[in-house]
Write the structure tokens for this entry.
Amino acid sequence: MLSRLAARVVPFFGRLTVTSDPGARVEPGSILVVNHTSLADPALVLAALRGRLAVEPVLLAASGLWRVPVLGRALTREGHVPVHRGSAHAAAALDHAAVALASGRHVMLYAEGRIPPRRDAAENPPEAFRTGLARLARATGAPVVPIGQAGARRITSGGRAKQLAGVLTAPVRRPCLHVHIGTPLRLPDDVAAATELAHGAVTEAWRTAAGALGEPAALGGGARAAGRSVRRRS
């Protein structure tokens, strides 16, 4: 339901384009790791994955979403995994994700673990990754697909008032949004090395996405990467 809803709603709020590395594919049981910048970016990525690859992943998300009426029931019904950050139950999310991967489902997570606390709407490279991604990949042997998104902060960013204003005006502004799907990789067993490798791959995917939107923070390497990608509107 969430992926279908995102595919219908996102075009109302902005103009989404999607690119991928040549030959990039997402095998069943893959981990999809995405840079996190805004409350809006899960919808962008879900819409892009459904439209581009017909993929509807299991999402690892903050447990607070399960307390939202209707949404919480939908998340549970579709098998999405709550992450209880800072509690004794936090590690259980990786166990549930491993079960989903073993069944052939795709699992989408945010290795940064938070939205950056900035009030501006500009793009910046991903923050440092936490180790959960590397530990999940080591435990399951699943391939990791780096995904970069840009433009979500043009819909919603900053404090509550600014976020609300962004959502209300986005259908009029219809900002440009971009998602780039990178080449899958296998992470090494060493957690530190795996975390660094994954962070670098997602950063490159983000540079391509942000470069496609002309974001200053990404133009150094993003324009070159964007030239190698295959563009498709979703």
